[in-house]
Amino acid sequence: MHESCEHESCDILLSGTGGFAARIAFDLAGTARRPVSVVIAGRNADRLNWLVLAANARAAIFGAPATFRGYRTDLLAPDAAPALISATRPKVVVQAASVQTSQVIATTGDAWSQLVAEGGLSATAVFQTLISARVAAAISAAGNGAAFVNCCFPDVVNGLIAALGHDVACGMGNVAILSNAFAGARGIADPARIQVLAHYQNLAPFRRAPEARSERPPRVWIDGQEITDVYGAFADIRLTPEPVIDISGASGVPLVLAMAAGEDWTGHAPGPGGRPGGYPVALRDGRLALRLPPGVTEEEAVAWNRAFEARGGLVIDGDRAVYTGALRDALARHSPALAEGFAIRDIESVHADMRALRDRLQDMR
């Protein structure tokens, strides 16, 4: 399988074979309207073979001009990322491989999942960054201008990638989960009619019953008018406790198809250009730009999103990543040194320390 696509270019490279990557692949197979070639890359041969087979079958079912092939690789191996980019020469890279499953938000029973529940998902940021930073560095070194879409915790990780000096177009999900849920509930078919500012922390309240939602809500505009009571207006929107892959994985598919085809697109995405949180965006002439409501400046929108991690999470301060609030306190109880944050350039060594902490906590019941 590795050899079958050696030095054969593709439109979209999708790295990862988990549930999120599968949703992306299967929706590409069902919705492509122009010819598109996709390489799926991963280390589990059986899973990789199945995703390629199923994606090609789905393309046949729906009459979509999408073709899929596999590339077996372990992105944790030295030089694997540069070899992958060199062999596939993609126009768009969609990175969904991670050493930390998103299912941790629905896991209980060990001290690690308790730390994540208490301190927030930014406890996993180092794990989510590791492979994505390697892939971003490989794209930078290749210099072929491939658009990079990082699916791994993009609200926070994309800022770390940008701080390392690499380009990142955006991520998938998070703000787009809410914007599309709201649009679907209101019967809004034109994505230009709705504009949402939302941080990933805005998802948690929508996993609870309406009467239990009290945190700062996302900001929502429909037809240029801001909704003053977001929780009241969307009381019927309730997300599943586990990651809502059926929305989040699907949300970026029209965007990456547009990137691959050189077409325009309008919607929402997290982490555009390494910014914190999520925004309304538009793809025009190959560039992804913010699409803010009237009267809202980029500075205001970025500050609104950054405030969530400043209260509790991980923020970027120059060349350092700094833990804040409840997450810093939770880490300090187990590792005062890690709680102090880290130099972003040291992400590889910090990952080793965080992995040791995670392994230890997962053994604590």
UniProtKB/TrEMBL annotation:
The lineage of its organism: Bacteria, Pseudomonadati, Pseudomonadota, Alphaproteobacteria, Hyphomicrobiales. This is Saccharopine dehydrogenase NADP binding domain-containing protein.
